[in-house]
Every structure is written in C-alpha cells, then in structure tokens.
C-alpha cells in the first residue's frame, strides 16, 4: 500500500531529511520518497499502515502534514 501525504513547511534538503527520518521511524514503513518541489511524501508499507501515525510523526518533527 502507498500513502501520499501533502507536507507543508519544508524549504530545503535538511527539511526533506528530517521528514524522511520521522516517517521512517513509524513501524511498518518500508520506504519513503519526499519531493521538496511538490511538497509531497509517498510512503510504502503494509496494507494496515496508519496514515494518522505518519501525520503525527511529521507534525512532531515540526512540519505540517495531511492526506494528499
């Protein structure tokens, strides 16, 4: 299953790294691709991946997130 999130507040590659690391720390995440230009994160994981947990992780890292 792939979940796409709209990420706000990113302005540089450091932001991309922070968001990527926050999402990767969520159990069940298999891979993450963060696109700075589009402000989107694509997250691959099992079918039971919890979008709310992904959003909470991004918010805890200091960025905004919502389902795309």
Automatic annotation (TrEMBL):
<dbReference type="InterPro" id="IPR006121">
    <property type="entry name" value="HMA_dom"/>
</dbReference>
<dbReference type="Pfam" id="PF00403">
    <property type="entry name" value="HMA"/>
</dbReference>
<dbReference type="InterPro" id="IPR036163">
    <property type="entry name" value="HMA_dom_sf"/>
</dbReference>
<feature type="domain" description="HMA">
    <location>
        <begin position="1"/>
        <end position="66"/>
    </location>
</feature>
<dbReference type="InterPro" id="IPR017969">
    <property type="entry name" value="Heavy-metal-associated_CS"/>
</dbReference>
<protein>
    <submittedName>
        <fullName>Copper chaperone</fullName>
    </submittedName>
</protein>
<keyword id="KW-0479">Metal-binding</keyword>
<dbReference type="GO" id="GO:0046872">
    <property type="term" value="F:metal ion binding"/>
</dbReference>
């Amino acid at each position: 299953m792939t979940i796409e999130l709209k990420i706000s507040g990113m302005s540089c590659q450091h932001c991309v790294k922070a968001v990527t690391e926050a999402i990767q720390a969520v159990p069940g995440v298999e891979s993450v691709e963060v696109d700075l230009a589009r402000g989107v994160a694509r997250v691959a994981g099992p079918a039971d991946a919890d979008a709310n947990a992904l959003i909470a992780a991004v918010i805890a890292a200091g960025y905004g997130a919502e389902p795309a």
